[in-house]
């Protein structure tokens, strides 16, 4: 087993470098892929003791059965299989194997429930519930307006810089997944709220002058801080739906489609392939 274990370790390390550099995946995505492959590695070594290049289709099928027996959700099984497929695709493109043992294996279908969608009125209530008389309130109003009207991911929101704002041209530059940039139109309301916030921020000292949204201590906001801002605003607005930053993004897409935008246009604004 020791010899095959060493082969797995070397191959997984090479795969990790590949997805990090060639695929340009985020650190979180790399970690998730490696975690799934490591789970599969441990199973194969324990059950069959073969190197990665000797894995066969029936071993992958037995792995899925193993996940089912351990009561993994269908969505988890699908994600873990996706990670294993990516690993063997890497072996395929680097000529380590001639065919992938996962080629004809499909993941179990899961019944997915759609997330809640906010109405336009509910979005307005949430933003209006924020006290606009304070610097924090002006920041939060601008932040929530931008999160909704541009359909941003929370990571994209917290990463925004002043140098990403092109108000004269009517858009902002967003750094999406895999360091892919896209240009997103910005509404007049969002632009005005950002300018009001920035006007007051000029008087405050900050070590992160180019970061758009800052905490009270002059540091860049974290994802958790954005969640808290939304949670508090939703409570004040008296809305009982479960609302997260992703719900703002999903609502943005839903409202665009309802307004006549094409799916392709919405995909481009969201940064989807």
Summarize the amount of helix as a percent range. Answer: 55-70%
Main beta-sheet annotation: 3 strands, antiparallel
- Shape descriptor reads elongated
Through-space gap between termini: 41 Å
Query: How do the strands line up in the largest sheet?
Result: 1-2-3
Query: From the helix content, strand content and strand pairing, which structural class follows?
Result: mainly alpha
Alpha plus pi helix count:
11
* Helix and strand sequence: HHHHHHHEEEHHHH
Average of pLDDT:
87
Stretches where pLDDT is under 50 for at least 5 consecutive residues are none
Description:
The structure is a single chain. The protein has a three-stranded antiparallel β-sheet. The chain has 273 residues and is mainly α. It is built from eleven helices and three strands; from the N terminus they run H-H-H-H-H-H-H-E-E-E-H-H-H-H. The protein is elongated, with a radius of gyration of 23 Å. The two termini are 41 Å apart.
Note the topology.
Blueprint lengths: L1 H21 L4 H21 L9 H13 L4 H20 L26 H9 L6 H15 L4 H6 L5 E2 L4 E5 L5 E5 L2 H14 L21 H15 L7 H14 L4 H8 L3
Antiparallel strand pairs: 1-2, 2-3
Helix pairs in contact: 1-2, 2-4, 5-9, 6-8, 6-10, 10-11
């Amino acid at each position: 087993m020791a010899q095959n274990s060493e082969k797995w370790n070397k191959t997984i390390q090479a795969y990790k470098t590949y997805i990090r550099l060639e695929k340009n995946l985020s650190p979180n995505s790399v970690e998730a892929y490696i975690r799934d492959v490591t789970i599969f590695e441990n199973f194969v070594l324990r059950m069959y003791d073969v190197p990665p290049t000797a894995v066969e289709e029936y071993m992958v099928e037995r792995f899925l059965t193993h996940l089912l027996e351990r009561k993994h959700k269908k969505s988890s099984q699908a994600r873990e299989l996706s990670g294993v497929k990516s690993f063997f695709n890497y072996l395929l493109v680097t000529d380590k194997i001639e065919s992938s043992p996962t080629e004809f294996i499909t993941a179990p279908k899961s019944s997915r429930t759609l997330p809640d969608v906010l109405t336009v009125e509910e979005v307005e209530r949430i933003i209006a519930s924020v006290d606009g008389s304070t610097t924090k309130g002006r920041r939060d109003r601008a932040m929530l307006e931008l999160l909704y009207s541009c359909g941003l991911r929370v990571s994209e929101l917290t990463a925004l810089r002043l140098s990403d704002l092109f108000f004269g041209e009517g858009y902002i530059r967003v750094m999406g997944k895999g360091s892919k940039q896209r240009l997103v139109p910005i509404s007049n309301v969002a632009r005005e709220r950002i300018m009001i916030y920035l006007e007051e921020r000029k008087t405050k000292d900050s070590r992160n002058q180019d970061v758009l949204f800052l905490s009270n201590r002059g540091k860049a906001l974290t994802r958790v801080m954005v969640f808290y801002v939304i949670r508090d605003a939703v409570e004040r607005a008296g809305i009982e739906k479960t609302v997260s930053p992703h719900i703002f993004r999903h609502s943005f897409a839903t409202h665009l489609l309802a307004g006549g935008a094409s799916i392709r246009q919405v995909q481009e604004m969201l940064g989807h392939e």
